[in-house]
Amino acid sequence: MNDRTKHGNGKKIDPELRLREIADRIGPPDREAADAALRHLDSLTKPPGSLGRLETIAARLAGMTGELAPDLSRRAVVVMAADHGVCEEGVSAFPAEVTPQMVYNFAAGGAAVNVLAKQAGAQVVCVDIGVNAELDHPQVLGRKVRKGTANMTQGPAMTRGEAAEAILAGMELAFELHAAGCRMFATGEMGIGNTTASAALCVALAGMTPDEAVGLGTGIDEPRRRHKVDVVRRAIERNRPDPVDPLDALAKVGGLEIAGLTGLILGAAERRCPVVIDGFISTAAAFAAAKIAPQSSAYMLGSHLSHERGHRMLLEKAGLTPLLHLDMRLGEGTGAVLAFHLIDAAVAVMKEMATFESAGVSRE
User: Fold this and answer.
1) Which residues touch 93 (CB under 8 Å, ≥6 apart)?
2) What is the CATH number of domain 3-70+348-359?
3) Which residue of the set 67, 189, 212, 332 is catalytic?
4) Residue range 221-232: average pLDDT?
5) Are 210 and 312 in contact (CB under 8 A)?
6) Whether 332 is catalytic
7) 75-341: CATH number
8) Most exposed of 33, 230, 262, 269 (fewest Cβ within 10 Å)?
């Protein structure tokens, strides 16, 4: 355990007990605020419900935050980075060395998520939670639990304690960012091999078959996809993750960045902040978060439908409806930051649109 798993008096604490304590604090959305938002929307100069899902978003944001038109101008996309031992099985079109290289690219501002986040007014927070390299950069937060996971076809990807520690690291980061003024979060990730781990979690927790869950990832061909299906099947058979214990599944067939995002989502929910879920890997984390704390689902917004094979089914099982469908499959949080624009539009309608009364417009 590192210093993050100690009390102020230096005494070690159990990260699983701590995350459970935080998860149990997540409350339901404010129903009165959501209803007030719906009444306000119906008073605006438009036919009732005519702005469709923008109205749904506005009402949900009110329920999450307790405010009719919350100020969400301070926002961050958190890019969790980690490596995966399952890459030894040849499941990716890219070598594992790409993970630390891309982390430095994020830190330098050169990745797609940097470009799109800048356009959306979002801070990019890059976190080393399990990269298999020593990283030293002022723009990379060091929260390393271990240097990558083990090969899950040979045994558990990590220990239960390490999975809990990674979740807790994500929770604590959400609290830190919230204390600094952040009021909306997006999930992002980087980790060669993480679509394999996400697919395994789909099988373990969502009841999907390996063939339903496994896609083309970084751009592999169909023969390699079939090999990847077999890798996931072997990992499940070897580890037998408990379908009703998300921590067990994350430890046995998950990834450190997926566990970190699970914690980020739970931490954002505990602070009553909206958290925008990116693609396939992020949705696997969201599914795990909802298994840990069902109330956390009320604070999640689905951003887009990924081109990754299992994403549509996983979104349905997670109860998330994507806002966009752009055939994207990059990850990093790119789809989530694009969804920020639609969320901003929903808030602007609540703040700026005239009511029938204020505009002197007849309802008849």
Assistant:
1) 217, 218, 219, 220, 224
2) 1.10.1610.10
3) 332
4) 95
5) no
6) yes
7) 3.40.50.10210
8) 230
